[in-house]
């Protein structure tokens, strides 16, 4: 005798409904998903930077000082372009905002050494007059890297920069000048040091205090004291291109998570060469392709819950995987972008799925380590972990295994670290000045009036554009009138 399946009402009365009678658990660790979500939210709350009027004014004052300094560097020997376009990114190089090697960088800690950090890409050369795909000289380099011959530029440019080049003589008698990232970085550091020395001979009212200037590999790190805040600027000399590199052309043929959300023109508006070489590359000649401008656009299409999970995961791995330095936060960023392509948009948009996203990012990172494979998002044929030894990847994979076994405990540790950093910052602010800080351009009268307007404007931009990067156009002959660009909007 056959029996009919119970109806929905009967199933409910029999306790066969789909809703579990127990909390949702993570199978691997046994952690409660609801608790993980709350811990991620708590981390995000403490990790977010609150900008009051005073802090906004301090940010503007530091930015104003840095751009004034760069204007003076341009005037030293006219090497930098007169009309330049900088890309200002929220977060320092150590935060993985640009694909640069971290093993040559000194360790700076938020709270101990600085309160806010930024990365500034400064074009030493610009190639903005080409509409076709840009073909680079990759014959001598690993994937995602290139040498740069000054043959692409005019005689005036070659004359200015040939002392920052390596010279290769060909059999036919021709001489080729290759732009050297190490020599450019040396010149940049020396020029910045000269300018800062001159500035400090004639201090102006309200001028930031230069607390530290260091050359970290090919990056110049400057920490400024402004009122009660300390700002870290990682300044990176780059080569700027309009258009898209031919080596990444096939990437445009694939389907991506940002399709239909932003235009292709926004994504492929330009790219950079940054001063970093491959594992076996020649440091004096080799540059690395960077798609920082494109990544600014892609971030607009990533859900807030996934970004929260990414920030929490980044805080965990920066501490855990710091020695030996093999994994960068930039690797984690690449994995997040691949996950956005792989998973449905409506799944990634779930506001209460941050815990699932965090666990997934940890799993992805561990998978990449075990298989020693992390494709560059824009040039997938480039494996960013290829050079690592088996011993190193297994060491880090085992460390990640401990995180995956108890993610709640590692989140609590990350929360305690960020709270401690915030306490150090607040303590410094209590000891510091409580008065308004005039801009370096102020010269008496009512110094706060123009700067208040700028501070409010800057605060509005920060509030309305969380996590976005700011391009600034500046004329070195008139540094009092910077022009902001956030994505495609001018201010």
From TrEMBL:
Q: Which Gene Ontology molecular function entries are recorded, alphabetically? A: nucleotidyltransferase activity; protein-containing complex binding
* Skewed-composition ranges (Polar residues): 431-446
Mab-21-like HhH/H2TH-like domain: which residues? 325-400
In what residue span(s) does the Mab-21-like nucleotidyltransferase domain sit?
136-298
Gene3D superfamilies hit by this protein: 1.10.1410.40, 3.30.460.90
Q: Name one Pfam family in it.
A: Mab-21_C
Q: Which UniProt keywords apply?
A: Nucleotidyltransferase, Phosphoprotein, Transferase
What domain of life is recorded for the organism? Eukaryota
* Region of interest (Disordered), residue spans: 431-452
Q: Which InterPro entries match?
A: Mab-21-like_nuc_Trfase, Mab-21_HhH/H2TH-like, MAB21L/cGLR
Similarity field: Belongs to the mab-21 family.
Described purpose of this protein according to its UniProt entry:
Probable nucleotidyltransferase that catalyzes the formation of cyclic dinucleotide second messenger in response to some unknown stimulus.
| Record-given protein name | Nucleotidyltransferase MB21D2
> What is the source species?
Canis lupus dingo (dingo)
List the top taxonomic levels of the source: Eukaryota, Metazoa, Chordata, Craniata, Vertebrata
């Amino acid at each position: 005798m056959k029996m009919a399946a119970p109806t929905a009402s009967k199933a409910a009365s029999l306790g066969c409904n789909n809703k579990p009678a127990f909390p949702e658990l993570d199978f691997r660790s046994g952690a409660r998903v609801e608790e993980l979500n709350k811990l991620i939210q708590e981390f995000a709350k403490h990790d977010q930077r609150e900008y009051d009027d005073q802090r906004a004014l301090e940010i503007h004052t530091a930015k104003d000082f840095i751009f004034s300094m760069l204007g003076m560097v341009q005037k030293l020997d006219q090497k930098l372009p007169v009309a330049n376009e900088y890309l200002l990114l929220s977060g320092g190089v150590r935060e993985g905002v640009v694909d640069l090697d971290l093993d040559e960088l000194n360790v700076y800690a938020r709270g101990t050494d600085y309160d806010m950090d930024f990365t500034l890409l400064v074009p030493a050369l610009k190639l903005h007059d080409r509409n076709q795909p840009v073909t680079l000289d990759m014959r001598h380099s690993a994937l995602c890297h290139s040498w740069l011959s000054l043959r692409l530029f005019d005689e005036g440019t070659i004359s200015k920069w040939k002392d920052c080049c390596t010279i290769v003589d060909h059999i036919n008698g021709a001489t080729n000048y290759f732009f050297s990232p190490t020599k450019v970085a040396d010149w940049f550091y020396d020029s910045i040091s000269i300018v800062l020395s001159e500035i400090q001979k004639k201090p102006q009212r309200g001028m930031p205090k230069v607390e530290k200037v260091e050359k970290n590999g090919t990056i110049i790190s400057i920490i400024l004291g402004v009122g009660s805040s300390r700002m870290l600027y990682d300044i990176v000399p780059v080569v700027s291109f309009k258009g898209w590199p031919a080596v990444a052309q096939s990437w445009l043929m694939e389907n991506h998570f940002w399709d239909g959300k932003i235009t292709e023109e926004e994504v492929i508006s330009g790219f950079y060469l940054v001063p970093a070489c491959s594992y076996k590359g020649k440091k004096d000649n080799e540059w690395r392709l960077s798609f920082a401008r494109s990544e600014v656009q892609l971030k607009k299409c990533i859900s807030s819950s996934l970004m929260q999970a990414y920030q929490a995961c980044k805080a965990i791995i920066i501490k855990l995987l710091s020695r030996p330095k093999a994994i960068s936060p930039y690797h984690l960023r690449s994995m997040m972008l691949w996950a956005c392509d792989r998973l449905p948009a409506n799944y990634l948009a779930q506001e209460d799925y941050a815990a699932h996203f965090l666990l997934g990012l940890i799993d992805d990172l561990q998978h990449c380590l075990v298989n020693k494979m992390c494709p560059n998002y824009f040039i997938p044929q480039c494996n960013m972990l290829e050079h690592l030894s088996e011993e190193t990847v297994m060491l880090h994979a085992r460390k990640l295994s401990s995180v995956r076994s108890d993610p709640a405990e590692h989140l609590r540790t990350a929360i305690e670290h960020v709270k401690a950093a915030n306490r150090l910052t607040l303590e410094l602010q209590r000891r510091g000045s409580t008065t308004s800080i005039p801009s370096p351009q102020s010269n008496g009268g009512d110094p706060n009036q123009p700067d208040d307007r700028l501070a409010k404007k800057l605060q509005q931009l920060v509030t309305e554009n969380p996590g976005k990067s700011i391009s600034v156009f500046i004329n070195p002959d008139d540094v009092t009138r910077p022009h902001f660009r956030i994505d495609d909007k001018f201010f």
